[in-house]
Amino acid sequence: MIVEDVRREPTARGWRLSATVRSKAALAAERLHFTVHGGDGEWLPERGDAFLAGLLMPAMSAGEDLVVDAPVSGRLLRSARTVMEIYAAWWKYLRKVTVTAGELVEAKRGQDAVGLFFTLGVDCFYSLLRDGGRRSEPGHRAVTDLLSVNFEQHAGPDHTQLIDRVRMVAERSDCRAVVVETNLRAFTAPLVRWEDFHGAALGSTALALQGLLGRCLIAAGFEYRHLPPYGSHPVLDHLWSNEALEIVHDGADATRAEKVARQLSRSDLALQHLTVCWRSRPGHNCGVCEKCLRTMIALELAGVLRRCRTLPDVLDLDRLRNVPMGSADHRDAMREMGLDAGARGRPDLAAAAELAANRYGQVPRTEAAR
Ligand SMILES: [Zn+2]
Which of 134, 140, 151, 211 is most buried, by CB atoms within 10 Å? Predict the structure, then answer.
């Protein structure tokens, strides 16, 4: 897999960093790009770091050596070896390849913006709100930029509304919203699974913006006590750092229920804008899927479900018991939420969550009867 012709150009709405990628694999397009709305061309230096991070896993999946014909950070290139060791240990479809760069050039230090990838979900709201409470701590570097990345390449009024919400939250939090478009997810989809890859996709996007960011937070999806192999992980995320940009896996100190109880339950901003659903239209919650229901349990445990404007007021336990579980990760997350409910004196919610988790992998009754 060869990355060449790395180029930064102005677009009608901002700036674009892109490169040509040649591979024997069937990739979705010829050029991979990161495009920022507005901003400054200096934010996107013409380097190969973002392409190395974004194409390492796809190259491993394709079994092709990765050649990045552009300046690359020596630190990042060294870390890529460790990333490959972890990937190969976790996922059988990935094997180690050789990675080479056109030239090793240290990243330029001095950028002081602190980014946080922001989707309006529980994890990133927790990181944002907790950061707000730490601003007076010595040595703390406060979040300055909320990064909204359109990996799904959504368009239309729902997506526009989602971006408006991110902008509103940013404004109320004394941050700037930075909106990024990229074809990275579609580009690599033939070769990698998003749940394995998304951490690298975030690292890659942060590296594209290294002319802006000196530090960037990736909000944790799991907690230190339960860390399955997953694309964004405390052993992986920091490895996408280079000499000038520090990438941090943030907020794995708390379960989803603890995040809601400690921070979101005390924030009207979060309760007005919380958006967690993958199933529904961009910027909306369906209110009936596993993730919506699991979030509703956390809000109910914190006593604020009725104050949350974006999810139903009442948790239907029958619906919870019967909610389909899409994966073992969802099952584990539901089980963890059930444990939190039990510990917080809600055996009714604990039992319903446990029943839902236990139904994962079972053949539905209607099919078994056929
Ligand atoms: Zn939903």
Answer: 211
